[in-house]
Amino acid sequence: MTNDNDLVIRDLRVAPVAAPEREILKGIDLTVRPGEVHAIMGPNGSGKTTLAYALMGHPAYRITGGQVSWQGRDVLALSADKRARLGMFLAFQYPTAIPGLSVASFIRSAMNAKLQGVDKDPNIDPTDMVRGGGLNMGQFRRLMRDKMGLLKMDEAFASRYVNEGFSGGEKKRLEMLQMAVLEPKMAILDETDSGLDIDALRIVAEGVNAMLNPDMGVLLITHYQRLLNYITPDVVHVLAVGRIVKTGGKDLALRLEEEGYGPILREEGYDAGVSDEALLLPVEPAEVAR
Fold first, then answer.
1. Where are the domains of the chain?
2. How many Cα atoms sit within 13 Å of 153 on the Cβ side?
3. Quick one: which of 30, 65, 199, 271 has the most CB atoms within 10 Å?
4. Is the dihedral of CA 63, 67, 70, 74 positive or negative?
5. Are 88 and 188 in contact (CB under 8 A)?
6. Residue 286: its pLDDT value, please?
7. CATH homologous superfamily for the domain 7-93+186-204+215-279
8. ∠ at Cα 148 (144, 154), nearest 5°?
């Protein structure tokens, strides 16, 4: 049984706009309930990031079939900004720098945009720093201090320009700060561990764990089992050949680390088309960043 608060994905099929005849996702079925952490693991090119972008409404991807419902809404009928205002959040694998825009201004605009609601309250203008109609400056400063304290971040971080000159670890911590302030009901974390050394990974994972709550579902996309040493998933899914081919618990991630994806694909009746060695989990990222 599902309810309106569950993210329910049924037979989702997705292709790039640039090549609509080439489906990347070929029928995804998945249900994420509030309070649950679902880890998505899979080989390179299996469609993990495509799933994240499709759920968030990225314009580079076309939905060719299937349904996504959440919060009593047809998610696929909503624009990306409406999905965000409904409470969906995507932490990017490669966050973009925005020179000239401070972290504080960026997050306050995002917060006030969310407060507009899906159908937009005309009395709230997220771009108006004085009469925005959402949080006033005093309320926002207190909120930022609280959330930065939760994530053990220096308050000077808020005055820096968004991701300009940031290390890989700082970029990921900014994603976590946005998540902490916006308090989404569904968080999609796209390879948050990518490019982090072990200390930075631990700090980011602690931030995620501090935000877990019974009202928020989490879809955690990762290449590395090591992230799951810090963030314990309720369910682990293997995404390959455009489908979720196997679902299990934390033990499934440990098996993947030991054996790679080849044996599991064969068990499920799929021909990977490459050697088992090519389907081993990567060991450590080439880039490390604090």
1. 7-93+186-204+215-279
2. 30
3. 30
4. positive
5. yes
6. 44
7. P-loop containing nucleotide triphosphate hydrolases (3.40.50.300)
8. 115
Residues whose CB falls within 8 Å of the CB of residue 46, separated by 6 or more in sequence, listed in order: 239, 240, 241, 242
pLDDT for the residue 223: 79
Strands of 48-192, DSSP E: 61-70, 73-74, 88-91, 98-102, 161-162, 186-190
CA distance 214 to 135: 25
| Paired strand residues for 8 | 31, 69
Q: What is the pLDDT of residue 281?
A: 63
pLDDT score at 214: 96
Are the C-beta atoms of residues 220 and 194 closer than 8 Å to each other? no
Q: What is the pLDDT of residue 188?
A: 97
pLDDT in tens, 110-137: 998 888 888 876 666 666 656 555 678 8
Q: Which residues of 41-69 are buried (b: 16+ CB within 10 A; e: fewer)?
A: bbbeebbbbbbbbbbbbbeebebeebebb
- First CA to last CA distance, the chain: 43
Burial of 152 (C-beta count, 10 Å sphere; 0-12/13-18/19+): exposed
CA separation for the pair 133, 131 (Å, rounded) = 5
DSSP one-letter code for 112: H
pLDDT at residue 49 is higher than 70: yes
Is residue 158 within 8 Å of 105, Cβ to Cβ?
A: no
Q: Which residues pair with 218 in a beta bridge?
A: 37, 187
Instruction: Give the SS3 label for residue 175.
Output: helix
According to DSSP, the residues that pair with 90 across neighbouring strands are 188
The residue among 225, 168, 232, 154 whose CA lies nearest residue 200 is 168
- Give 273 or 14, the one with higher predicted confidence: 14
